[in-house]
Design goal:
The complex is a heterotrimer of chains A (540), B (563) and C (146). Chain A is an alpha/beta fold. Chain A has 18 helices and eleven strands. In chain A, α7 links the parallel β2 and β3. The two termini of chain A are 26 Å apart. Helices cover 45% and strands 17% of the residues of chain B. Chain B contains 20 helices and 16 strands. The chains are: A alpha/beta (540), B alpha+beta (563), C mainly alpha (146).
Chain lengths: 540, 563, 146
């Protein structure tokens, strides 16, 4: 039975060049059978660090292998809007090797290839937000999250594709290209962080940063079969993240394992004096919670109260997705959790409330793109014409529509009917989540009502697209952390399509989510969440 | 609340001005805070501004009518039409705060720096940049709120006010909309005697925090943007419509200037645009309850222009009313033209602009604790109104009170002089007379003169106590003002101690009398006017040091002795 | 690890996972049932979205400074009307006495000390300006729009 849902290990269409130094393959092929024994085996980041420090692998070799794979897979998946200059990247890798050679301290992320969503600013590297209006724009500063990664030794391999300014759920709304789902190239990777999710899924990088305003990390993580984490609002500085809806936006993390995702989160978390909404709370060492599978007790999550949100497994959710989530719930029970269904009656109100708030805030946040100080400027001999033309040419349809709707919702006389009511709904949603999380340690739900769908399928129906965000938007309205990790498959594509389980925690309790997620991941067996495209069969 | 509109209008102002004025100097003078037409002018302005804080105040004190204008002609026309009408005047004032950094970023702000040099990703509105509130802005807002007797909102917030303009980098201004930091206060002031005198209390509707916009300078076919000022912290103060005349409005503005200077939260300089007033004027027949149509006047760069613009506007509206053309008064923004001394239509309002305000999500709420407010309250200096009442109670005339309390530095100097023991009236006279004149001539502020309050006290005491003569006192005053030093030191150095010994003076008188037998004969023959001659000779002999009272007394005795 | 494996197998075979059955279509109907509002609603219909005028697209476009081509107006108008109509469902929700959550839950007073810092990379700031003529950012003439 299992074999029917497990992707067969068949030869990749994009076999990677076999490297002479076989030891490096160990870390590149993450599709390990579930017989991991130590923590380093559960984390690419830790295992790379081990190999680098023990000099079994050089950073240059590591970088080469990722760049090679990127080069081979990229024409088919199109994750990146900008790929870093290989010479520069290799030079950074060389510097790390030199340091190791000299026995100098290197950062915990030394040599780790990371990808950054293109709405997150990177100094001296294009940062377009997926919009024509910022084509060619190079910020004069790094986003705080990027700066922290660089300071820890990570190497930025490129900027990933997204729906323009994060507005979309498929990455089709990028001004530049359409990214494909590595599991089935005819399908969307989800969005808006589709490029970041797909690049981790295709092992073009070890981890990546995305942003999540209404599910833009979690839904593509689910579609691409990777781990995605939306932190608590305020946990990670938003400085340098191009604002879409400021009260909902967070920078989030992608990894191919819970451990990597947790390490990435730890690296970018913490108070930033440049973001007044960032929290001064101490950041716990998320990795300290991780234990290797071999040392797990038989019921490692004994007594953990898990609430399955009833409204998320209601009608309208793909039955395969439902089955996968129920399977995951059963798995959690097997691990010792006390499973309960919980009802959040206000759940369905979250969607319209979210779209009112997000469009309203976006209409304001995108006012700065006027063609005067940066970005593309339409030529005109009159100021208002310059504004109207620059913005008309610079923005895509979805962005224009959301700006117009937001402008409408904020207009005098409409504010109370839309924006204010949406904020009141937000209060109700916050309270209902608070109550549910007082009774439960975590809440679970699907990350999306379906698995990845076909490119073009929902392009012209905004409401159908918006409906796909139902599982995730409430979490943003409540500002809570949520972890999505692959938990099964539904039929689709050649080998099935991954389904993500969403775990929602109390504010600032990412630690618990990561701990539970890690155990779940270590004990979920029989699944291979590496897309066939780059499955480790390619190496053997 | 209308900074947005204010800047929208500036484009128009400037384009109008290129038509109206060929005299660029005047364009600059009138519009310097917006335009800075030429760089070298910036420099000139910057230099003269260095000492402007007290200078402006002092100059104004020299002619206590802060609003000294050729009034007569205007007054007559105003009277003719306005007799039957009452004007209702409210003022919106923007005060630029003298913080070291901008409101939401760490850029330093210095008036007159090279264009586009005090900027960063935040005040330039770059993608991904976020505002972080300057704690000083809150402190200054609380200070002003308390000084204006307002109720403080312990829980206020920022909102976004949205409109497009090239001097507004983010496409919205961070401001406070429905919950300002302070509301419902009042300001006390004393109208100078020349304007009828009397104490007034005007209501303050609200004080709120917001950021300034950059500057848009018009040139030929286009415009140029300088973002140095973008993001500089402002407090907007909205008055109740409590004022009735141009003088009252100008005095309100002058008092606000004093208050912000006393508090040390702004240089209050109108020429630089650190204090900008927009006034709303409407009139109604006396006895009518409902308000008339409100007209807004902008471009008021001095107290006198506030006064004149309002009086002009009242007269214009009253004239229309009395001619049965009251409906020609429309809700609009008018500009005060300094050259033509009149207001002209700038922009008619077709319904109110929709700024689509909503709460600024990038900034947390502004939460004040009562302890914080109390600690600020305790730290407040003695404010102009308290100073005036204190001086008044000490027995100074209102004219002296207004002069001395006008400038905090002068008042402090005066207070320090008093605390060194100086006589109240004498101290006031010295400061308002010779010292003020010296400061004006030398273009110095009271903090820049070398004479310390202690030495002024010493000087006054030396004269009063007879150590030196008043004449010598005046002489050494200027030396002390310019070079400093102590009164005692100078007296000793120059051997200036008054001769009070009757024997010594008698000897000198004897000498003079014996040397001028002819004059003595004439005197004794009845030409008593010659007493002055003798006194002058004796004083000369004493090198001016003889005690004049003593000298005259003994001289008279000696002259008359043998007759 | 062998134990873990068998345990997982057990788990997976225990629940009603039916991989052999045909999978449901992954596409969604525009209004899946869970989107419909099942929250307690007001008992009167006076305050519904229909009482508010529908969006005036040309005016919104002017306010938002986006010029719309005729085909865009044609494309956007029905979509925006639908979405705004869908927003309108919140009018029916009883929200009396509910405080609006005007922002995300943020903690503490993250204020800044008034200490100047100069941004060093000014050249890069100016390098991004499309029309720059030292020392100014240039814009075309301003016609008043009100």
């Amino acid at each position: 039975m299992l074999s029917t849902i497990q992707p067969p290990r068949y030869l990749s269409r994009f076999p990677l060049r076999r490297r002479t130094k076989c030891r490096s393959l160990h870390i590149l092929s993450s599709a390990e059978p579930a017989t991991k024994t130590s923590l380093t085996d559960q984390s690419q980041i830790l295992s790379i660090r081990d190999l680098l420090l023990s000099r079994q692998l050089s950073a240059v070799e590591l970088t080469h292998s990722y760049l090679d794979r990127l080069k081979q897979t990229e024409p088919h998946i199109k994750c990146f809007l900008h790929v870093s200059d290989p010479d520069k990247v290799l030079k950074q890798a060389q510097e790390i090797d030199d340091k190791i050679k000299r026995n100098e301290e290197v950062g915990p992320l030394a040599g780790i290839p990371v990808a950054i969503k293109d709405n997150i600013c990177t100094a001296d590297m294009p940062s377009t937000g997926g919009s024509h209006i910022l084509e060619g724009y190079r910020p004069p500063f790094d986003a705080t999250a990027v700066k922290r990664l660089k300071d820890l030794g990570a190497i930025v391999v490129g900027k990933t594709n997204l729906d323009e300014f994060g507005m979309g759920s498929t990455t089709e709304a990028s001004a530049f290209k359409v990214t494909a789902n590595p599991w089935d190239l005819s399908r969307v990777p989800g969005g808006s962080s589709g490029g970041s999710a797909a690049s981790v899924s295709a092992r073009q990088c070890v981890v990546s940063l995305g942003s999540d305003t209404g599910g833009s990390v979690r839904q593509p993580a689910s579609f691409c079969g990777v781990v995605g984490l939306k932190p608590t609002y305020g946990r990670v500085s938003r400085f340098g993240l191009m604002a879409y809806a400021s009260s909902l936006d967070v920078i989030g993390c992608f990894g191919s394992s819970v451990a990597d995702t947790g390490i990435l989160l730890h690296s970018i978390s913490g108070y930033d004096s440049l973001d007044a909404t960032s929290s001064k709370r101490e950041v716990p060492d998320f990795t300290s919670q991780f234990t290797s599978a071999s040392s797990l007790q038989s019921r490692p999550l004994e007594g953990l109260r898990v609430g399955l949100i009833r409204e998320t497994v209601d009608a309208g959710v793909d039955s395969g997705v439902k089955s996968a989530i129920q399977g995951a719930a059963a798995h959690l029970e097997q691990l010792g959790c006390i499973l309960k269904e919980v009802s959040l009656p206000s759940f369905s109100l979250g969607l319209p409330a979210y779209y009112i708030l997000a469009s309203s805030e976006s209409s304001s946040n995108l006012s700065r793109y006027d063609g005067v100080r940066y970005g593309n400027q339409a030529s005109s001999d009159e100021l208002n014409a310059l504004y109207e033309e620059s913005r008309a040419k610079g923005f895509g349809s979805e962005v224009k529509m959301r700006i117009l709707m937001g402008t409408y919702a904020l207009s005098a006389g409409y504010y109370d009917a839309y924006y204010k009511r949406a904020q009141q709904v937000r209060t109700i949603i916050r309270k209902s989540f608070k109550a549910a999380l007082d009774e439960n340690d975590i809440l679970i739900s699907p990350a999306a009502p379906s698995a990845a769908y076909k490119i073009g399928e929902k392009k012209n129906d905004p409401l159908a697209m918006y409906a796909g965000d139902i599982m995730t938007v409430n979490v943003n309205l409540a500002g809570l952390p949520a972890l999505v990790l692959p938990c099964g498959f539904v039929e689709g594509g050649d080998v099935g399509l991954p389904v993500g389980l969403q775990m929602i925690g109390a504010a600032f309790d990412e630690e618990k989510l990561l701990k539970v997620g890690h155990i779940f991941e270590q004990t979920l067996e029989g699944y291979n969440f590496v897309p066939p495209l780059i499955s480790n069969a390619a190496f053997t | 609340m209308t900074v947005g509109r204010l800047f929208e209008c500036q484009s128009f102002i400037l384009s109008q001005f290129s038509l109206l004025c060929s005299d660029k100097e005047r364009v600059f003078h009138v519009y310097d805070f917006i335009s800075e037409v030429k760089n070298h002018r910036n420099v000139v302005l910057y230099c003269s501004m260095k000492s402007s804080q007290t200078q402006t105040a002092t100059q104004e004190k020299q002619q206590p009518p802060k609003v000294k204008v050729p009034q007569h002609a205007l007054k007559r026309t105003v009277d003719k039409f306005t007799r039957d009408y009452e004007a209702i005047i409210g003022i919106e004032t923007h005060v630029q705060l003298s913080t070291l950094t901008k409101a939401f970023c760490s850029c330093p702000y210095n008036y007159g720096s090279q264009p586009n040099t005090s900027i960063c990703p935040i005040c330039m509105g770059l993608p991904g940049a976020l505002p972080v509130l300057n704690s000083k802005m809150i402190e200054f807002a609380v200070k002003l709120g308390l000084a204006l007797n307002c109720k403080l909102s312990l829980n206020s917030k920022f909102d976004r006010k949205q409109y497009f303009y090239p001097d507004l980098p983010k496409g919205y201004q961070i401001s406070q909309f429905d919950i300002p930091i302070a509301t419902g206060g009042y300001i006390d002031l004393d109208i100078p005697l020349e304007f009828g005198g009397g104490h007034k209390k005007f209501g303050i509707t609200r004080v709120h925090m917001e950021e300034d916009a950059g500057k848009l300078l018009h040139s030929g076919n286009g415009a140029q943007v300088d973002l140095n000022r973008a993001g500089v912290p402002l407090l907007e103060i909205v008055s109740e419509p409590d004022m009735r005349t141009g003088i009252e409005a100008a005095e309100y503005a002058a008092e606000l200037q004093r208050v912000v200077r006393y508090l040390g939260i702004s240089n209050g300089n109108m020429q630089e645009g650190s204090l900008r007033c927009d006034v709303n004027v409407s009139i109604r027949p006396i006895g009518q309850l409902e308000f008339g149509t409100k007209v807004e006047i902008k471009n008021l760069n001095s107290f006198s222009s506030i006064n004149r613009a309002i009086d002009f506007e009242i007269s214009r509206q009253a004239q229309l009313h009395s001619q049965g053309q009251g409906d020609h008064i429309v809700q609009e923004t008018r500009l005060w033209e300094e050259g033509a001394q009149k207001t002209v239509t700038m922009r008619k309002k077709e319904g109110l602009s929709d700024y689509r305000y909503f709460p600024e999500p990038d900034l947390p709420e502004v939460i004040l604790t009562q302890e914080y407010v109390d600690s600020i309250h305790k730290s407040l200096p003695e404010l102009p109104e308290m100073k005036r009442r204190r001086y008044e109670n000490m027995g100074l005339s209102m004219q002296d009170v207004l002069f001395l309390a006008n400038d905090m530095n002068v008042a402090e100097y005066f207070d320090a002089t008093l605390s060194s023991g100086a006589d109240l009236k004498l101290a006031a006279n010295w400061i308002m007379g010779d010292i003020a004149a010296y400061m004006k001539n030398e273009k110095l502020s009271i903090n820049e003169i070398k004479l310390t309050p202690k030495e002024l006290g010493e000087l006054i005491a030396s004269i009063k106590g007879g150590t030196i003569s008043g004449k010598i006192g005046k002489e050494i005053l200027f030396e002390l003002l310019a070079k400093g030093g102590t009164v005692k030191g100078l007296i000793e150095e120059k051997d200036l101690i008054q001769i009070n010994d009757p024997v010594e003076i008698g000897k000198m008188i004897d000498k003079v009398i014996s040397e001028n037998p002819k004059q003595l004969e004439q005197y004794r023959g009845g030409k008593t006017k010659l007493q002055g001659f003798f006194a002058g000779q004796v004083m000369k002999l004493s090198k001016g040091k003889a005690n004049p009272g003593l000298l005259n007394k003994i001289l008279l005795e000696k002259l008359n002795a043998k007759s | 690890m062998a134990m873990g494996s068998s345990r997982a197998l057990l788990i997976l075979s225990n629940f009603k996972f039916k991989p052999t059955l045909p999978f449901a279509s992954s596409s969604l109907k525009p209004f899946p049932p869970f989107i419909r509002n099942n929250f307690r609603t007001r008992n009167f219909s006076a305050k519904t979205s229909s009482s508010l005028p529908p969006p005036d697209l040309p005016r919104l476009a002017e306010t938002a400074r986006i010029s719309l081509a005729p085909n865009e107006v044609e494309e956007f108008a029905p979509k925006i009307r639908r979405v705004v109509g869908w927003f309108g469902q919140l009018q029916a929700v009883d929200l009396d006495n509910v405080e609006p959550a005007i922002r995300a839950d943020t903690e503490g007073d993250n204020l800044r000390e008034d200490v100047p810092e100069t941004f060093e990379n000014k050249e890069a700031l100016m390098a991004s300006v499309p029309s720059y003529k030292e020392p100014y950012i240039k814009v075309p003439k301003v016609l008043n729009k009100e």
